[in-house]
Specification:
The complex is a heterodimer of chains A (about 110) and B (about 110).
Chain A: E1 4-7, E2 10-13, E3 19-25, E4 31-38, E5 42-51, E6 54-57, E7 64-66, E8 76-78, E9 87-94, E10 102-103, E11 107-111
Parallel strand pairs in A: 2-11
Antiparallel strand pairs in A: 1-3, 3-8, 4-5, 4-9, 5-6, 7-8, 9-10, 9-11
Chain B: E1 3-5, E2 10-14, E3 19-21, E4 24-26, E5 32-38, E6 44-50, E7 56-58, E8 64-68, E9 73-78, E10 87-94, E11 103-104, E12 108-113
Parallel strand pairs in B: 2-12
Antiparallel strand pairs in B: 1-4, 3-9, 5-6, 5-10, 7-8, 8-9, 10-11, 10-12
The chains are: A mainly beta (about 110), B mainly beta (about 110).
Chain lengths: ~110, ~110
């Protein structure tokens, strides 16, 4: 009963490097999303997907790319990391409609 | 624009005391609401949810929340706090009219003193 799995748990990047944060869910949820969490700002939506092949931007999409080739996976790509992207990233999924989100345990990213 | 406000950044209560965490929302549609809890280094866990019907909802770990449409509020309560309740609590609001995307409050950090 894995739920939402995020890897890696921690990552340190230098400015300008690229990387992909992985997210996988085994609940057959149509909806998947990425949030970033910063102190005093709660969680802000980066990108989301309502199904395979469909993605859309959230509140803070700049500097991030996503794709959804399968129902299970929703990777988040940083093409050229910046210090402003230092944050904790959460992947979350749910069934369609107003169901509650199920969260992964997060990836703590530091960009120096 | 949709917004969620949690007015209290930090709250400290004594173990055994009652707790109320505030959440106010501003939405141009009929909302549904959640409360989540986050322990250090962990993801968010759902405490309770409100979609419609009875405005007083019960959740896990002895928490409850009351939806008050006239006050645009969804405050979280617990009659007797335990030390293990120390965590950060987030209120979240969504609406079908806004594509069911959840908007989160900034969070309230609860400290429990023995």
């Amino acid at each position: 009963n894995a739920g939402v799995t995020q890897t890696p748990k921690f990552q340190v990047l230098k400015t300008g490097q690229s990387m992909t944060l992985q997210c996988a869910q085994d609940m057959n949820h149509e909806y998947m999303s990425w949030y970033r969490q910063d102190p005093g700002m709660g969680l802000r939506l980066i990108h989301y997907s309502v199904g395979a092949g469909i993605t859309d931007q959230g509140e803070v999409p700049n500097g991030y790319n996503v794709s959804r080739s399968t129902t299970e996976d929703f990777p988040l790509r940083l093409l050229s990391a910046a210090p402003s992207q230092t944050s904790v990233y959460f992947c979350a999924s749910r069934r369609q409609g107003n169901s509650p989100l199920h969260f992964g345990n997060g990836t703590r990213l530091t960009v120096t | 624009a949709q917004s969620v406000t949690q007015p209290d950044i930090h709250i400290t209560v004594s173990e055994g005391a009652s707790l109320e965490l505030r959440c106010n929302y501003s939405y141009g549609a009929t909302p549904y609401l959640f409360w989540y809890v986050q322990s250090p280094g962990q993801g968010l866990q759902l405490l309770l949810k409100y979609f419609s019907g009875d405005t007083l909802v019960q959740g896990i770990k002895g928490f409850e929340a009351e939806f008050k449409r006239s006050q645009s509020s969804f405050n979280l309560r617990k009659p007797s706090v335990h030390w293990s309740d120390a965590a950060e609590y987030f209120c979240a609001v969504g609406a079908r009219e806004y594509g069911n995307k959840l908007v989160f409050g900034a969070g309230t950090i609860l400290r429990v003193k023995s």
